[in-house]
Write a structure and sequence with these properties.
heterodimer, A: 286 residues, mainly alpha, globular, B: 395 residues, alpha/beta, seven-stranded mixed β-sheet, 14 strands
Chain lengths: 286, 395
């Protein structure tokens, strides 16, 4: 078959053309996403030979029973959830006014500068940012010094430190979608609300906020799910605390099925979160 | 509307294909991955030009940490094997990394070696091909952590104890016992540190051996359920005073330097690295004795450069290199000859070759169901139990 006959066949059959075009990315998607997830799901129901660490492929519910039954997993899940919710809340509270200022108030020039300023931390490595917070929070660090001026110490390493560091690291992921959502709110709506006598607070609550919620939701999905899966920040600034990711990590060496079962917890939590978000209808407006 | 059934059919076919594909992949993963033992090599071939090494920090130094500290460049020039090294913080981390098969050589402690051998990750080592093996202390050879069924799986490197480090300004009077991190820990609430690994449970067991003899602990790696519970209880109490656990040695180093941590477990190398201008620390071997490590250079069963791996094993057990490396890390070297190259006092400090002293250190071992202390009337707790207990302790 010559090249021209191939090309004429393809031009006559759009189905084959599409199939060939999509085959490579689809295979990749299946291998990377579906199979990996399926392997994780299946592994959670296996067990392990205690000495050789070899997987034993016999179906058992022991791991699931363990993670649902033992107090340890409840405590750690609640802690992780608490961190994720607080991080999301803090980021949203920062993103709302900052996004508004960037989209509606700032001049063109300073808007660009602000976008660059908020995107800049994304260019730095995750580790560098977490370690920077470690030195900020440590004994004699910047926060210790600044806190000392008003009679407070640094919060030290622990729960607060995890929330602060994670809120910093994921902030750009919330600001950018919120900023984009504000950008799409026509100025004329603000003018109209003002002309009809609405005070700024009322305008914001009834006109702007409903239009920005989809952006806020998109951002919160990022900050929430990224925090749920984190285990490095907690190692660096978390003191003696552990999150779900740490439990996965510590078990991945000696008990892979249990690690897989623990990894199901954040997956379930994030699915519930997405379901709740979907019910608000915000996903359709993305 | 004609389109809809077709599209439905297509998506169903794709769905079917996906299902089939996942099935194939799963079955492929399901195949037995245990490698068959082929015995040790008889003869060495030509060096491959590169060797990748997985080791504790301070074991493979090429001058990049400190220009004065370099025992890799000479090896590279001499053998033509370019060294790439990866350091790890805990044996669990090392086990995960070793299983990837990317490393030709692994420096493993006793809580890792047996797992490596059992999982088929370690290759049998023909010690005849390593001329420097002969000079190594006999009491380090053919031990339960480097030899299984009469087959050697590696070359002894050096050994040492997990020490108690404290900030001399904050911790007074100077502690002599592990009490400083257990009963007396609340004195430094939030500034106590401990090693972040299930194997740290053995440190609590060593303490209990001395202070609660009625528990009947004979070997800290051989704990029945009751003994493990006692150790867990002790560690849970300690947890309330712990500021942070460490597995990354640079983290605990920084922590002592800033004063976030003032007392806790350490290695001699960390004590050496701490800038005396930032914190004045002392590291001691407490009266109860301590846990410790006795490390083995192993060759991966999946090694891509076995010849360079053998060359490295011989190089690192060369008395001069061994003296440099063990002195830098702060541990006893593996031979009397090495002591001739070490700086004065080093071998005395670490009691090199002193079998009696070495017997007081509980070298890291892998806890298994069959009690290591010889008891047959009870089942002991294994490493998986310890891992669970450790997660529970941290809470």
């Amino acid at each position: 078959m010559t090249l021209s006959s191939i090309s004429s066949t393809l031009s006559r059959r759009p189905g084959i053309r599409l199939g060939l075009l999509l085959a490579a990315p689809l295979t990749w998607l299946v291998l990377v996403y579906v199979v990996a997830l399926a392997a994780l799901l299946v592994t959670a129901f296996w067990t392990i030979d205690s000495f050789t660490n070899e997987l034993e492929r016999t179906f058992t519910l022991d791991n699931v029973r363990e993670i649902t039954g033992e107090a340890l997993y409840r405590t750690v899940t609640l802690r992780t959830l608490g961190v994720a919710l607080l991080v999301t809340l803090i980021d949203c509270l920062i993103a709302l006014p900052v996004g508004f200022y960037m989209a509606k108030v700032a001049s063109r020039r300073s808007r660009h500068l602000l976008v660059i300023a908020f995107l800049m931390p994304l260019w730095a490595s995750y580790l560098v940012k977490a370690l920077a917070w470690r030195s900020l929070l440590s004994n004699g660090g910047l926060l210790d010094w600044a806190g000392g001026l008003v009679g407070l110490g640094s919060p030290g390493f622990g729960f607060t430190a995890i929330v602060l560091t994670q809120a910093y690291i994921w902030l750009p992921y919330v600001i950018i979608p919120v900023y984009a959502a504000y950008e799409r709110v026509p100025d004329s709506l603000l003018d109209a609300a003002g002309d009809l006598g609405a005070r700024p607070a009322l305008t914001f609550r009834t006109v702007v906020l409903p239009l920005v919620v989809p952006g806020l939701v998109a951002g919160s999905i990022f900050s929430f799910s990224l925090t749920m899966g984190d285990y490095i920040t907690v190692n660096i600034v978390g003191g003696a605390n552990q999150m779900l990711g740490n439990l996965v990590f510590i078990n991945s060496g000696s008990n892979l099925p249990l690690a897989a079962a623990i990894a199901l917890i954040p997956i379930v939590v994030i699915m519930i979160y997405l379901a709740l978000v979907r019910r608000t209808g915000a996903l359709e407006n993305l | 509307m004609r389109n809809i059934p077709t599209r439905y059919a297509t998506s169903r076919t794709i769905g079917g294909a996906l299902a089939a594909l996942s099935l194939i992949t799963l079955t492929a993963c399901g195949g037995d991955s245990g490698s068959e033992s082929t015995g040790a090599v008889e003869k060495l071939g030509e060096n491959e030009g590169e060797v990748s090494i997985l080791a504790w920090p301070g074991y493979v130094e090429d001058g990049s940490t400190d220009p004065e500290v370099d025992w890799v460049s000479g090896f590279e020039e001499e053998t033509g094997c370019q060294v790439t090294a990866k350091v790890y913080g805990t044996s669990d981390e090392a086990f995960n990394l070793a299983k990837t098969g990317e490393y030709d050589v692994v420096a493993a402690s006793g809580d890792l070696t047996l797992r490596m051998i059992a999982a088929g990750e370690a290759a049998e080592v023909n010690t005849d091909l390593i001329p420097n093996y002969e000079g190594i202390y006999d009491f380090l050879k053919d031990r339960e952590w480097n030899t299984v069924d009469g087959k050697n799986y590696g070359i002894p490197h050096g050994y040492g104890a997990n020490l108690l480090m404290y900030n001399t300004k904050d911790v007074t009077p100077a502690p002599t016992s592990w009490k400083a991190v257990f009963e007396d820990a609340p004195k430094h609430k939030g500034q106590v540190t401990a090693y972040d690994s299930p194997i740290y449970i053995a440190d609590a067991a060593v303490y209990l051996m001395a202070h609660q003899p009625d528990l009947g602990i004979e070997n800290p790696y051989s704990l029945d359920e009751k003994q493990l519970d006692a150790a867990v209880e002790l560690l849970k109490t300690q947890r309330a005073s712990v500021g942070e656990y460490w597995s990354d040695y640079t983290k605990t180093q920084a922590s002592f330097e800033t004063g976030d941590t003032v007392v806790g477990t350490t290695w001699q190398v960390i004590a050496n690295l701490i800038d005396p201008k930032k914190a004045s620390v002392e590291a001691i071997l407490p009266s109860e004795g301590a846990t410790g490590w006795n490390d083995t250079w192993m060759i991966s069963s999946k090694a891509k450069s076995p010849n360079c791996a053998y060359a490295w094993l011989n190089h690192i057990s060369d008395p001069e290199t061994n003296a440099q490396a063990t002195e830098y890390f702060g541990e006893a070297p593996n031979s009397d000859k090495a002591c001739e190259f070490a700086s004065e006092g080093h071998c005395e400090t670490f009691h090199a070759g002193d079998e009696k002293y070495a017997e007081q250190i509980w070298f890291w071992n892998t806890p298994i169901e069959k009690c290591l202390d010889g008891r047959t009337d009870v089942k002991c707790t294994d490493y998986q139990d310890w891992t669970k207990a450790w997660a529970e302790i941290k809470g």
